[in-house]
Design brief:
Elements lengths: L2 H14 L11 H17 L12 H16 L19 E10 L5 H8 L2 E5 L6 E5 L3 H9 L5 E9 L42 H5 L9 E6 L19 E2 L16 H10 L16 E6 L9 H9 L11 E4 L11 H13 L2 E5 L28 E6 L17 E4 L7 E4 L16 E5 L2 H18 L5 H11 L17 E2 L5 E2 L10 H8 L2 E4 L3 E4 L3 E7 L3 E11 L5 E12 L5 E6 L5 E5 L9 E10 L9 E9 L6 E12 L2 E3 L5 E7 L8 E10 L11 E4 L1 H7 L3 E3 L9 E9 L5 E4 L2 E5 L2 E3 L7 E4 L4 E7 L8 E10 L11 E4 L1 H7 L3 E3 L9 E9 L5 E4 L2 E5 L2 E3 L7 E4 L4 E7 L4 E2 L4 E10 L11 E5 L12 E2 L10 E9 L5 E5 L1 E5 L4 E2 L6 E5 L1
Parallel strand pairs: 5-7, 5-8, 6-7, 8-9, 9-10, 10-11, 46-54
Antiparallel strand pairs: 1-3, 1-4, 2-3, 12-13, 14-15, 16-26, 17-25, 18-25, 19-24, 20-23, 20-25, 21-22, 21-24, 27-28, 28-31, 29-30, 29-33, 32-35, 33-34, 36-37, 37-40, 38-39, 38-42, 41-44, 42-43, 45-47, 47-50, 48-49, 48-52, 51-54, 52-53
Helix pairs in contact: 1-2, 1-3, 2-3, 7-10, 8-9, 10-12, 11-12
């Protein structure tokens, strides 16, 4: 087919706007109608035509043949693409393809040849189009076709994608209302305090952990069930009111409302566009109203609330929050303690506020030891202290060996934003938002923050219970205030022999929801609980008065199973209980304070039994001899250690056998056919198993292995969970060009797992270039000038700015001080690019290498420039002759002297490069009107030229020397000057 016919075929179809569908190409009526539309378009463009609607069928057939011939041009055989989403779960294939066309290919004409319809172009690139097919099956077939006009093609699909949970609640972010801090305890976006203190819940939310399916009970003074941010999560079936004896825990007294704020911190409904969000925004809220005010704080009510729907074989409530405590030390409530033990054993997680009784920032005072509350020394529960935004324990936060974890809460300058009693009652504080407050805080807020986060962990790991939770908190919490050495800390941060750090101000550290929830899925639970128990040991020994050595007793633990809590029960008689301290030392030598002395507590103890708990030894091997020490810390009063009992609890996490990986990166560039070079992959171990070289490897899929001749590569080094491994090896590219499969995945004993690398194809292309031209001026030593090179892309791959450059040979780079120059713009196949840049010549005259070549991902390729050397010459000149110089001249008169010089240097003399005449004898004198004269003639090296100097005679009579030399604008002169002539000025 001739070019004219081919062009007509294209124009015919393109301007008609009608493209044949399958089956129409054989129908002459289609082309007849198309042609009529084509003529109509021409007429509409101002080119009137007359035509016969009953044109001869042979003309239609001729036009049809031309059009069909044009269509046939695109159809050739070359591998293109496939369906990358085939056989994936929850991926829906679409009846459309995504095609990247080569330069110059019309998408409309391409679509017409395939029976497709252009849907839209890619916004990110002008050569890629989405095109609709007739059906899913047709799209699959289209994606499998071959066409040399296509760079790549794949079948489109609907992927299982959804937005991660993100709060849209106005009080969540800072600035609403103006100046408000937002819910910084959840996500400290403005880094208030300067230490990035927050609970890292946002990261857990991004894994869709919202507390869904977890029932959380708030044991408190009331829960306003109709609060707009609590009602969506409220569970009326499981709620209860011990004041009114019904299932409505809403407040009835003006003083009530504490529990409303507690509930908001844990489980306020998030994402509903109003107010605030809780840490577990989609958890279920159970309200358990206790008689703090109206009916008296009876032991029976509190025991009942602890047991309520959280004992037996299938407790309804998974987590309970207790943001309350005794108002004085050493209150022993055995009914609550027993209820807690039963409920914890049944699987309910109990979270307890450590208390707000700290006396000062570092001193020891009354009731601030959280171990002096009997309900907070029950194994398996979580006791929570508070940290302020300044990376220090909150000024009010109680401490103790029984503290499990700390969480962000209020300081003297900043509160916690949460739900408040609706209307004017409550703490308020937020202008325009009367149902919320930013004045909440204390460990009453820290505890429900942990409660909500444990709700996220419970969602991630349904087997979570109190023991399991404490194990996870011990390994996932963050060390804060690392330099803390206050008396309350009991020696600051100390790491036990199991590698677990502990500080009595912070427990295991600040809760990290991201790490906690990630750890929860790596373990299936905890080994069965085992215990050792000394039973009651009679001592009846005096406690030395005001003596740090105290009275000591030892006991032995025979098991090596890692320890959880150590629980010590003392029976003491003492005239002043504030004098009493107690310590426990493990076989490793680690010493933990169980009870702190208190100068303000003058109450007596008479055969009083007290239980204290410590978490400091968590995970240690407990086997060996332990030492218990009871000390009298102040002078003047005596006491007796009557008996003690030591219990140790044992167990360890059970790691899931989970193979998980995350693709990190790959280094693999375009190959030339048959080229052998190195590639690198990095994968992170996100599972619970350790990758070893004998059992884990990088695996190529079948198509990749067939194309590249390599099926797998073993892990180079043992890689523990959370570690990253690198695979580095050589591969040899296929000998044919095109897009080749490049899919790699981790493989273990159970087969391949985790995501593949990305991208999963790799280009094999031919690389070639043609030298077009260069512009290289003459250089003087050390001179800096611009040079230009032009190269044409004669290979099969476009040149990108990221991967292609102009490369100097080693000798050239050494001589000229420049090794590469980047490509300034992407250069298509058959396109020409220009490299323009400055070079500084060597400082010594001579001929120097000047070899440049295009370089791509696989090294230099194609033709070099020509010529491949440049001569660097110093400027020089020789004087030849001069004429038209008068012997005498009138003052102020002018004359044009003609001076002939020969260029004996290596650079052309041209004004643009700074060459000119300079007056000499003396140098740079202005006797003849100026010290310089420009000339417009270019004088090449070796050439001789007569150059004009226009002179103006001095205004004072006398005899003057007339002599000139070649020079430059920088004030230098070079070469042989003209012969001096003496001119008389009259």
């Amino acid at each position: 087919m001739t070019k004219t016919t081919r062009d007509f075929a294209f124009i015919f179809v393109y301007y008609s706007g009608a493209f044949p569908r399958p089956g129409q190409v054989e129908n002459p009526r289609f082309f007849r109608n198309v042609f009529l539309r084509f003529l109509a378009v021409c007429c509409a463009r101002g080119k009137p035509r007359t035509y016969n609607t009953s044109m001869p069928s042979r003309f239609v057939a001729t036009v049809s043949a031309a059009v069909l011939a044009g269509f046939a041009l695109a159809q050739t055989t070359a591998p293109v693409g496939a369906t990358p989403f085939a056989f994936q779960k929850n991926v829906q294939a679409l009846p459309q393809i995504v095609v990247r066309l080569k330069d110059g290919i019309s998408p409309q004409l391409f679509a017409a040849t395939r029976g497709l319809k252009v849907v839209r172009p890619f916004a990110s690139r002008g050569d890629t189009w989405v095109m609709a097919a007739r059906s899913v099956a047709d799209a699959t077939a289209q994606a499998a076709q071959t066409d040399t006009n296509v760079v790549s093609v794949y079948q489109d699909a609907v992927l299982p994608i959804r937005l991660r949970w993100e709060p849209n609640d106005p009080l969540y972010n800072p600035g609403t209302p103006s100046g408000a801090s937002g819910q910084w305890h959840l996500r400290n976006v403005n880094n208030l305090g300067g230490f990035n203190i927050d609970s890292r819940v946002w990261e857990a939310w991004q894994r869709d952990l919202t507390g869904t399916g977890v029932r959380i009970a708030i044991c408190d003074d009331s829960i306003e069930k109709n609060h707009p941010d609590l009602l969506p999560n409220f569970d009326s079936v499981n709620s209860y009111d011990w004041v009114g004896g019904d299932t409505d825990p809403s407040p009835t007294l003006s003083a009530e409302g504490h529990g409303i704020s507690v509930a908001g911190v844990a489980v306020a409904r998030g994402g509903n566009g109003i107010g605030v969000t809780g840490a577990a925004p989609l958890a279920t809220l159970v309200g358990l109203r206790l008689p703090f005010y109206s009916a008296g704080t009876t032991a029976s009510a509190f025991e009942d609330a602890i047991r309520y729907r959280s004992t037996g074989t299938s407790p309804t409530i998974q987590i309970k929050n207790h943001s309350y405590g005794f108002s004085q030390p050493y209150v022993n409530d055995p009914t609550e303690v027993a209820a807690l033990a039963d409920s914890i054993a049944a699987g309910t997680i109990h979270v307890w506020a450590a208390g707000n009784d700290r006396k000062g920032t570092g001193s020891l005072g009354e009731n601030e030891d959280a171990n002096k509350a009997s309900t907070q020394a029950v194994p398996g529960q979580v006791v929570v202290a508070a940290i302020a935004e300044n990376n220090r324990f909150a000024y009010y936060s109680s401490y103790g060996a029984n503290v499990t974890v700390t969480a962000p809460s209020s300081s003297s300058t900043r509160g916690i934003t949460t739900t408040d009693r609706t209307g004017s009652l409550g703490d308020n504080g937020l202008t325009g938002y009367p149902d919320y407050t930013n004045r909440f805080g204390g460990t009453s807020s820290a505890a429900p923050l942990v409660t909500g986060i444990l709700g996220l962990a419970k969602q991630a790991q349904p087997a979570l219970n109190g023991r399991f939770a404490k194990h996870l908190l011990a390994i996932s919490s963050d060390i804060v205030d690392s330099s803390d050495a206050t008396a309350a800390s009991d020696g600051g941060w100390r790491t036990n022999s199991a590698g677990i750090a502990f500080n009595q101000n912070y427990g295991f550290g600040m809760i990290n929801a991201d790490r906690l929830t990630a750890a929860a899925v790596r373990y299936s639970g905890v080994t069965a609980l085992t215990t050792t128990d000394t039973g009651t040991v009679n001592v009846n020994g005096s406690i030395p008065d005001n003596n740090a050595a105290g009275i000591t007793r030892t006991f032995t633990v025979g098991t090596a199973t890692p320890i959880e809590e150590a629980v010590i029960t003392l029976n003491i008689t003492h005239a002043r209980r504030g004098d009493v301290e107690a310590y426990l030392t493990s076989p490793s030598g680690l010493k933990s304070r169980l009870l702190v002395k208190n100068a303000d507590d003058g109450e007596s103890m008479t055969a009083q039994t007290w239980t204290a708990l410590t978490n400091a030894f968590w995970g240690e091997n407990p086997q060996g001899t332990w030492k218990l020490t009871v000390v009298d810390g102040y002078a003047g009063n005596l006491g007796t250690l009557r008996t003690f009992r030591a219990q140790t609890r044992h167990g360890s996490l059970i790691a899931k056998t989970i193979d998980g990986s995350a693709f990190v990166s790959q280094t693999a560039s375009t190959f030339a056919p048959g080229e052998r070079k190195s590639v690198r992959f990095r994968f992170r171990n996100t599972g619970s198993t350790t990758w070893t070289p004998t059992t884990y490897r990088l695996k190529a899929d079948a198509a990749t292995a067939a194309a590249w001749g390599l099926a797998s590569r073993a892990v180079a080094a043992t890689t523990a969970p959370d570690g990253t491994t690198e695979f580095a090896f050589y591969v040899t590219a296929p000998t044919t060009t095109g897009s080749k499969p490049w899919k790699w995945q981790m493989e273990g004993p159970g087969g391949v797992f985790g995501p593949t690398n990305s991208p999963t194809t790799l280009s094999v292309g031919s690389f070639n270039s043609e030298f077009v031209s260069q512009t290289v001026p003459a250089f003087a030593p050390g001179e800096r000038k611009a040079v230009r090179f032009r190269f044409k892309n004669t290979g099969s791959e476009p040149w990108t700015t990221a991967a292609y450059r102009l490369r100097a040979s080693t000798a050239t780079a050494s001589a000229w001080g420049l090794a590469t120059r980047i490509l300034s713009a992407e250069t298509a196949v058959n396109g020409t690019t220009e490299f323009a840049f400055y070079l500084t010549a060597p400082t010594v005259p001579g001929t120097y290498p000047f070899v440049w070549q295009v370089e791509g991902p696989s090294g230099v390729f194609g033709a070099t420039n020509s010529p491949a050397t440049v001569t660097v010459s110093s400027d020089d000149s020789s004087f030849v002759s001069q004429r038209n110089i008068p012997a005498t001249i009138a003052r102020g008169a002018t004359f044009d002297a003609l001076l002939t010089f020969k260029n004996t240097g290596g650079s052309s003399w041209i004004k643009a490069n700074g060459y000119l005449f300079r007056s000499v004898n003396p140098l740079l004198n202005t006797t003849w009107g100026s010290d310089r004269q420009y000339f417009g003639t270019e004088v090449a090296p070796g050439a001789t030229a007569e150059l004009r100097v226009r002179a103006v005679a001095p205004s004072t009579a006398g005899t003057y020397t007339f002599s000139w030399s070649l020079g430059k604008t920088d004030g230098t002169v070079f070469g042989q000057p003209s012969t001096p002539v003496r001119i008389v000025v009259q």
